[in-house]
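Justification of resources, computational component.

The compute hours requested in this renewal are based largely on the per-chain cost of generating structure records like the one below. Each record pairs the submitted sequence with a full structure-token output. That output is archived, and it is also reused by downstream analysis tasks.
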Amino acid sequence: MHDAPTVVFTGGGTGGHLYPALALADELVKERPEVRPVFIGANRGIESRVLPNQGREYNLLPVRGWKRGNVLTNLGVPWALFKSIVAAVAIHRKYDSKLVVVTGGYSSAPAGVAAAVLGIPIVLQEQNALPGVTTRVLSLWAKQIHVAFPKAISGLPLKARDAVLTSGCPIQSPKEFGFNREEICDKFGLDPELKTLLVTGGSQGSVALNKLILGNLQKQNVQIGDFFCNWQILWITGTENYEAINKKLIGLPCSARVKMLPYVETMPWVLKIADLAVSRSGAMTTSEFLAWGVPSILVPLPTAAANHQELNALAIQGLGAALHLTQGDLDSGKLWREILQLTENGEKLKEMAKKALENAQPEATSNIVNSMLELLPKYREGSP
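The structure output for this chain reads:
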């Protein structure tokens, strides 16, 4: 047993589930420095790279995600889950976990189920408009369920709904970010006098979005030339896609106005300078766009579980802060026509940015943490 009370954070597989956990852990330590945050994730998830780089205390398990259409791979999923739950029980006992915060994704299931078995209080944080499988199952044992969208409540079991709080999605508050546009543009080699189009496919990148953007850049038409008179592109390709796209971009006339990055771990750096974004519609991403007042063109991942990205995009479009486009209806020409219609209409962009800020919940992280602390009453004054 450790002197400091341990709170376990579990969520990952993708950045959309991991970064809310990191934000909540940092805010909790800021509020109650005596708390010891420990992370539990998957050895195949993004957390296996991010957590060591950030110097976090963590444990990785062999749990796997379900692969649609891959029967052979899925045969090993139940056994990996069982082994991971057994390991998570041992981890909770080792640290004497006082609270388990679950932010979703396949990698969070073992620690969440183990907490339910051991009777450890569970807090769920669901980012999407449609709750994931892990959230729906664990909601029956959760003391608190924090959702980002009111629509998510209808996706939970009736028995669990009394524990729901509509709190928003935990992100780093823009108020805490101290760098200005000039400093960030200098860091990335961009021109602070030009407007910036951010292109991102989420933490893993998007092959489809990359092809759509690249397709029109290669055409070198007059409209694209006019675009680069006033705009530049900051393009986050995804680590696995970077080299191939970079080779195709080199030598194009527009390449001087396009800055490519394989991955950005600290998104506020790019959100601060983005004047328009073309993106997938993961919940973390869309919440950040709202908080930073970034107008967006959202192209949901069509294979996302239970079509949750489509629901997220429709919700943000309904607020007036985004344009929702369906991947199956797009080619590079149509996407660029939509981009140009917005980049050539400054008033429309201002209105979208205003709607984003009006509907943002930048204090979601602190609000969720304050609620969590109600489950740790004997530590609230700083003594175990």
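Confidence is low (pLDDT under 50) at residues 379-384. Residues 77-95 form the longest helix (19 residues).
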